[in-house]
C-alpha cells in the first residue's frame, strides 16, 4: 500500500472502533510484537479490540478491500510464532470478546466467545459439577480461540483428548468476510468434520468468533502418584508397564534430572533431588473405579524399580506434586540464561529411542537439554538451554531444536504435538507431507481465504505473503519476570502457585 | 456422452481391468443398483473391481478425461442412498482391495485397504489382545472404506466414539486423480484435521484407498444388564439416572414395545414380552473397574422401577441379550411388509420429548413406528412400518420419516447420527446449515473435485450432476431373504446368530 492508502485504511478502520479499542501507538503495539516463543517479532500497523462479531466482519471486509493481512489472537501464549503479527498487517485481538454466552448443564455444553480464558469455562461450570477438560499449562491466561486455532493439548489430554475432541461447533468469520456456522451441539454431525478442519488451522481460514464446547462431569475422585527412578529409561519402562496393564490414567508425565533440578530451583516442588527421572501418574473418575485402578497402578509402579514413591493424600499435596511439572518451562529460566521449548511427537513405543537420540544430539551440539514430556502419548517437550548473550550459541540451539524435530520425523512421529507449526516449523512441513498433500492443503486454505490475508506466512514454507522479521538474537527465555505479560513466556502466577500464568494460545 | 464416446470410455476402462474385474452385463450390474435403504435405485454404465491403488488412480483419471461420474463403494450397506450409482456413471467396487497391510501391536494400529470388512480388523488384532472399536450392526459385512465415508457409529460408540475417533490417517485418490496422504500414525497431527474432513465426506472428495486405524486393548471384563419397564419414558429416565451417577457405559440401548415384539417374532431373543421398553446397558474395562461400576449401576437400575432385570452370566448369555437389539432392523420385516429406518439425533435431555412427538406423528400419519435407539447419545432409529403393496402408504411413510427429521431439527438435533445424508436427506441440508455455510461446503467439495464427478447428486440438494432415479414404489424391506446379498437390507447371518449380515457402509 502507498502511504495514502495506508492512511485511508487506518481512517476507515478507526470509524469501526470507538476510542480505546484501536491502538496505533508504537508503545501500545509493542505488547503485541511476539508470542510465547519470543524468537519471532514484528510490529503491526494497528491492533483492534472488537467486542462483537459484526465488528470482526466489518474489519475483515475492510482488510480485504485494502489487501491488508490480519492476525487474530487472544493472549498470545502460542509457542511456535503462530500469533506473531504480519508486518504491514493488523492484529485483531479478541480479548474483549470474553463472554460466556450460554452454559447448559443438561446438555453439558458451553457457548463462549473466543476471548474467554480456558480456566474461566471450568470455573463457570463448577457449580454444576462440570468442567472443560483440555488443560494447557497456560490455562489461567490462554484463551479458547487460541486453543481452537492450535488444537491445544495439556497434561490430561492423554485420557480426554485434545481441544478438537471437545469442540462441538463454532462460528467463524471467514477471510472473505462471510460468517459460517459449523458443527452443532452434538458430536454426531451431518457430513465432514468441519469444526475439526478449523481446529488447528492456526487462524488461516478466518476468525473464530464463537465456540461451543463440551463439558464433562468433574471426576468424583482423583489419585496422584509420583515415582522417582535412578534413570530416565526406567521411568519410560514404567509408562509402558502402566499401559500394558490396561490402565488409562488421566495424565502420565515424565521429567528428567535437569528438569527436576530446574523445578527445584524455581518452585521447590520437593521432588527427590537425586532422582534421574520422576514420573507423575494421575487417575480420575468415579471413586470405586479410581480405587480399583489405583491398587493395580501401585502394583505396577512398585514392580518398576522406583527409589521413592509419593502419594498425594489431599488436594494441597496433589497441587504440590504438580507444581514442579506445571512450572517446568519457566523454571528452566532459573538455571539458564536462555532456553527454547521444542514440541515433537514420536510413537510411544519409540520414546526410549527418541530420548537417547536427543541426548546424543545435545552432546554433539554441546548444549544441555531438559526433558519434560507427556509420556502417555509420546509428546516430547525438550527444553534446550543456552547462553543467550552469544549469537553463536543461539544459532547452535536453533540447530539442535531442528535436529530434534528431524529425529522425531525419522522415528515416524510428528513435528508438533500441540504447539502448532507457526513460523518456527513451517520449513519442516514438506518433511511431513508429500507435494500432492501440501498442494491440497494450500487449495483448502484458498477456499477459505482466496487472497491469503488470514495469518499469511505461517504454516506453509513458501506461501506468498509478507515476510516476518526475526529479531537478531532474541531466541531467549531470559528474565521472564521483566517481560510484559502479553509478550513473554508463561509466568508463574503468584496468586495460584503451581499454575502457569502468561500470555494465550495455550500449551502444553 | 455420445454413444461413440461411451464406447471409447468403456474400451479404455477395459484396458485397465483384466477379465473378471469389470462388469457391464445388466445381470451383474443389478447387484449394485441400490444400497441398504433400497428406496433409490440406478444402474451404472459399468462396475470395476480394482485390486491396487494405481488402478484406482488410472480409473479416476479416465473418468475425468471423459467427464464420467463415479461412485466408490464397499458392500453397499449404507442406509441413506449414499452408495447408489449415478446413472451414466461407473461404480468403483473396492471389495477386492481387502488386505490388512500392517498390524502393529506396539503402536496399536492397523493399516488396511478400504475393502477390508470391519470385523476382520478385530479378528486379525485378537491374537494381540487388541480390537477395532466402532461396531456398526452390519460389522460382519460392511467395509472400512464405507465406515470412513459415512463416519459410521455403532452401539459401543457411546463410550468409544464414532469412526472419526479411530482413524489416524488415510491415503485418498482425489477426484483429480492425485493421491494424497493425510494424518499419520498418531492423533497429534500438524495442522487442521484432514482425516476428519474425509471421514463423513460420503465419497465426494475422492476414493479412500488406505486407512490407518487405532486399535484398542480388548476390555478385560464386560458386564451386560437388561432391564424391562412398563413404559418407554421410564427406560429413558433410567438412562438419565445412569448418566447422572457419573457412569460411562460402553453402550446404552433402548427398544420399545413394537421393536421387542418384532425381535421376539424374528429371533426369539427372550425379552420380556409384556414390557413397554427394554434397556440394555453394557460396561467394559479392567475387571476391578467394571465390578466397581457394576455395583453402582445396579443400584441405579434397581431404583429406576424395572419389572424385570436380566444379567448375562457368560458370553453366551451376553450374546443372547444383544441378539434382539442387533437384529432389530431386519426383525421388523417379520411383523410388517415394508419398513423404513430413520436416523436422527436429539440432545439427550430432549429424548422424552422426541419420543412423544414421534408417537403423535405416527398416530397422525396412521402408521406404526418401532423405536430402537442409542439412548446414551440421543441417536434415534425409528422404524416406520407400512404395507408396501400400496403406493399411497409408501408415500405416507416417507412423509412421516420426513416429519420425524423435522422434529429432530426443531429439538436442536441433527438430521443424521450415523447413516449419512446421501440421497434421502439432502433436502434437509439447508435446514441444518445457513446459506454461507452451505456455500462453504460446496467450495470445499470443489477443492477436491472441481468437475463434481465423485458421487455427484448426493448430500447437496441442488448440486448439478446426473439425477438419480427412484424406483416407483420400492420403499420396502419386504422379503429380505429373497434379495441378493449385495442389494438388500442387512440380513441375519445364519452362521452368526444375533449379528447382522448384509451389504457395507456400516450402520447403525
From TrEMBL, chains A, B:
Q: Per the record, which residues fall in region Disordered?
A: 451-508
Looking at the record's lineage, which domain of life comes first? Answer: Bacteria
| Domain named FAD-binding PCMH-type: residues | 40-218
Entry's transmembrane regions: none
Question: Which keywords describe this protein according to UniProt?
Answer: FAD, Flavoprotein, Oxidoreductase
A GO term, aspect molecular function:
oxidoreductase activity
Q: Quote the biased-composition stretches of kind Low complexity, using this chain's numbering.
A: 465-488
Which cofactors, if any, are listed as required?
FAD
PANTHER family noted in UniProt: GLYCOLATE OXIDASE SUBUNIT GLCD (PTHR42934)
Record-given protein name: FAD linked oxidase domain protein
Q: What is the lineage of its organism?
A: Bacteria, Bacillati, Bacillota, Clostridia, Eubacteriales
Amino acid at each position: 500500500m502507498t502511504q495514502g492508502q495506508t492512511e485511508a485504511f487506518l481512517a476507515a478502520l478507526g470509524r469501526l472502533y470507538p476510542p480505546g479499542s484501536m491502538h496505533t501507538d508504537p508503545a501500545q503495539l509493542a505488547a503485541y510484537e511476539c508470542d510465547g516463543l519470543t524468537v519471532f517479532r514484528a510490529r503491526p500497523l494497528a491492533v483492534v479490540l472488537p467486542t462483537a462479531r459484526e465488528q470482526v466482519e466489518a474489519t475483515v471486509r475492510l482488510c480485504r478491500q485494502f489487501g491488508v493481512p490480519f492476525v487474530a489472537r487472544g493472549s498470545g501464549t502460542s509457542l511456535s510464532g503462530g500469533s506473531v503479527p504480519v508486518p504491514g498487517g493488523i492484529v485483531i485481538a479478541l480479548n474483549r470478546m470474553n463472554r460466556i454466552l450460554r452454559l447448559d448443564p443438561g446438555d453439558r455444553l458451553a457457548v463462549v466467545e473466543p476471548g474467554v480464558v480456558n480456566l474461566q469455562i471450568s470455573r463457570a461450570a463448577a457449580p454444576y459439577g462440570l468442567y472443560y477438560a483440555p488443560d494447557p499449562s497456560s490455562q489461567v491466561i490462554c484463551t479458547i480461540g487460541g486453543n481452537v486455532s492450535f488444537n491445544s493439548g495439556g497434561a490430561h489430554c492423554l485420557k480426554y483428548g485434545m481441544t478438537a475432541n471437545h469442540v462441538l461447533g463454532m462460528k467463524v468469520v471467514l477471510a472473505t468476510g462471510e460468517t459460517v456456522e459449523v458443527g452443532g451441539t452434538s458430536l454426531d454431525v451431518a457430513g465432514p468434520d468441519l469444526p475439526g478442519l478449523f481446529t488447528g488451522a492456526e487462524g488461516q481460514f478466518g476468525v473464530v468468533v464463537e465456540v461451543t464446547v463440551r463439558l464433562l462431569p468433574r471426576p468424583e475422585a482423583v489419585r496422584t502418584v509420583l515415582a522417582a527412578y535412578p534413570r530416565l529409561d526406567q521411568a519410560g519402562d514404567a509408562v509402558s508397564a502402566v499401559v500394558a496393564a490396561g490402565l488409562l490414567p488421566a495424565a502420565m508425565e515424565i521429567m528428567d534430572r535437569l528438569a527436576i533440578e530446574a523445578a527445584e530451583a524455581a518452585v521447590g516442588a520437593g521432588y527427590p533431588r537425586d532422582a534421574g527421572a520422576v514420573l507423575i501418574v494421575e487417575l480420575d473418575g468415579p471413586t470405586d473405579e479410581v480405587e480399583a485402578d489405583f491398587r493395580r497402578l501401585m502394583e505396577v509402579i512398585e514392580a518398576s524399580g522406583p527409589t521413592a514413591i509419593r502419594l498425594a493424600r489431599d488436594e494441597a499435596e496433589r497441587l504440590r506434586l504438580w507444581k514442579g511439572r506445571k512450572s517446568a518451562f519457566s523454571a528452566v529460566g532459573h538455571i539458564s540464561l536462555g532456553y527454547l521449548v521444542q514440541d515433537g511427537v514420536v510413537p510411544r513405543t519409540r520414546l526410549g529411542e527418541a530420548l537417547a537420540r536427543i541426548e546424543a544430539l545435545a552432546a554433539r551440539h554441546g548444549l544441555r537439554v531438559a526433558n519434560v514430556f507427556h509420556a502417555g502419548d509420546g509428546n516430547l517437550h525438550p527444553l534446550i538451554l543456552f547462553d543467550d548473550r552469544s549469537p553463536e550459541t543461539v544459532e547452535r540451539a536453533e540447530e539442535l531444536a531442528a535436529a530434534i524435530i528431524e529425529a522425531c520425523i525419522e522415528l515416524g512421529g510428528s513435528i508438533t504435538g500441540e504447539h502448532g507449526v507457526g513460523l518456527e516449523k513451517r520449513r519442516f512441513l514438506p518433511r511431513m507431507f508429500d507435494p500432492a498433500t501440501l498442494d491440497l492443503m494450500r487449495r483448502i486454505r484458498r477456499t477459505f481465504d482466496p487472497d491469503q490475508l488470514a495469518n499469511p506466512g505461517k504454516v506453509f514454507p513458501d506461501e506468498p505473503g509478507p515476510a516476518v522479521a526475526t529479531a537478531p538474537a532474541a531466541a531467549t527465555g531470559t528474565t521472564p519476570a521483566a517481560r510484559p505479560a502479553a509478550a513473554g513466556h508463561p509466568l508463574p502466577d503468584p496468586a495460584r502457585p503451581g499454575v502457569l500464568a502468561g500470555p494465550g494460545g495455550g500449551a502444553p
